[in-house]
Design goal:
36% of the residues lie in helices and 21% in strands. By secondary structure, the chain is α/β, with parallel strands linked by helices. It has a single domain, classed as 3-Layer(aba) Sandwich (Glutaredoxin), CATH 3.40.30. The strands form two sheets. A six-stranded mixed sheet has the order 1-8-7-4-5-6, covered by helices on one side. A two-stranded antiparallel sheet has the order 2-3. A hairpin with a 5-residue loop joins strand 2 and strand 3. The chain is globular and about 40 Å long. 34% of the residues are buried.
């Protein structure tokens, strides 16, 4: 019978160690997940929720709020520089941003890299739309947290002119799909 308390103590210690390991903040656990499949979800007008609210500092040094983007469709792309599908979609996103600039504004939200890396990436891929580093505060990511947020990279959110998420693309964005989602959100 004296063995039972010892076994319980040993089991409790093992569970505690396992729990602490699961909560570690190593570089491996901090890396954003890469989307392995593409999933497009549209949200009807009555299911779009409330307008998002955030404040972020762009890599250009300008501070922007969600309200600054109201009145046009906002396309928010969550990415990081070494993410293969992010790199694959970069030029397409830039092209769509130019083709739809009368209806939509784009915001690139980097979830991992520092400003120098972001600037080099933008230069390499010809990105001219607004870009922010969301690494230290995660303000933009938190604004979209929940079922419509970025669960992996890349994730592209289409936000209607009133600030509500109308669609989400999980994985690499297809240009024709993105254009159609922008048209729908603008209506």
């Amino acid at each position: 019978m004296r063995l039972r308390p010892a076994l319980l103590a040993l089991a409790a210690g093992a569970l505690l160690a396992l729990g602490l390991t699961a909560c570690s903040s190593s570089a491996v656990t901090q890396q954003p997940a890469i989307a392995k499949t593409k999933q497009v979800t549209e949200y009807p007008d009555g299911q779009r929720g409330t307008p998002v609210d955030f404040t972020t500092d762009l890599v250009s040094g300008t501070t922007k709020t969600a309200a600054d983007y109201r009145g046009k469709v906002l396309v928010v792309n969550f990415w990081y520089a070494s993410c293969p599908p992010c790199r694959a979609e970069a030029k397409d996103l830039q092209s769509v941003s130019q083709d739809t600039k009368a209806k939509a504004t784009f915001l690139g939200v980097n979830v991992r890299d520092e400003v120098d890396t972001i600037t080099a990436y933008d230069r390499t891929f010809g990105v001219t739309y607004d870009t922010t580093s969301d690494v230290s505060r995660a303000a933009v990511q938190l604004a979209f947290a929940g079922t419509r947020g970025p669960n992996a990279t890349p994730t592209t959110l289409v936000v209607d002119p009133t600030g509500r998420v109308s669609a989400r693309i999980l994985g690499q964005a297809d240009p024709s799909t993105l254009r159609a989602l922008i048209r729908t959100a603008a209506e």
